[in-house]
Every structure is written in structure tokens, then in C-alpha cells.
From TrEMBL:
The UniProt record lists the keyword Disulfide bond: no
Protein name: DUF4190 domain-containing protein
Record-annotated membrane-spanning stretches: 20-50, 62-82
Entry-linked InterPro entries: DUF4190, YqfX-like
Length: 92
């Protein structure tokens, strides 16, 4: 008879954690469009990917967070290319 180590997290808690990661990914991706896209964008991508891998019930929110995170990184690249700055502003 093989002994296995007990699981540290229950399936319900793991699902709740994945749902929280999906929401956090969405929020960070949304904020990253306006502030600190160099930090929040990659965080949104990682959290969205982890939430999808852990089979969250909020898959749409995780995908949206992943998409917004990618948009944050693309915005950062565009700003660095055009303005030679990581900041953007309206007007001249």
C-alpha cells in the first residue's frame, strides 16, 4: 500500500484561488493601460495564464486580463519606440 502525502489545498480552495487570479489579472491589465504598464502588464499575463491553467470558472475574465496584459506590453513597446519614454500624455 503506497502512502501519499495529503493535499495542502482542497479542490474548492484551489478553484477559489484560480478565480481570484482571474479577477486580479483583469484588474492589473486594466490599470496597466494607464499606469505602470511595464509592471502590471507582465503580472496580468502571468496571473491570467495561471488562472486558465488551473481551470478557473471565470475563464472570460482571465482571458480578458491576459489580453489586456498583452496590450500593456505592446503599448510599452510602442511608447519606447515612438517617444523614447515609458510615459504618455494627451496633448503636446
Amino acid at each position: 500500500m503506497a502512502l501519499t502525502a495529503p493535499s495542502r489545498t482542497s479542490p474548492v480552495r484551489a478553484r477559489r484561488d484560480a478565480d481570484g487570479m482571474a479577477v486580479a489579472s483583469f484588474v492589473l491589465g486594466l490599470i496597466g493601460l494607464l499606469l505602470f504598464n511595464a509592471v502590471f502588464g507582465p503580472c496580468a499575463i502571468v496571473l491570467g495564464t495561471l488562472a486558465i491553467a488551473r481551470e478557473t470558472r471565470r475563464r472570460g475574465r482571465a482571458l480578458l486580463g491576459l489580453t489586456l496584459g498583452i496590450a500593456d506590453v505592446v503599448l510599452l513597446i510602442v511608447l519606447l519606440t515612438l517617444n523614447h519614454s515609458v510615459f504618455w500624455q494627451f496633448g503636446g
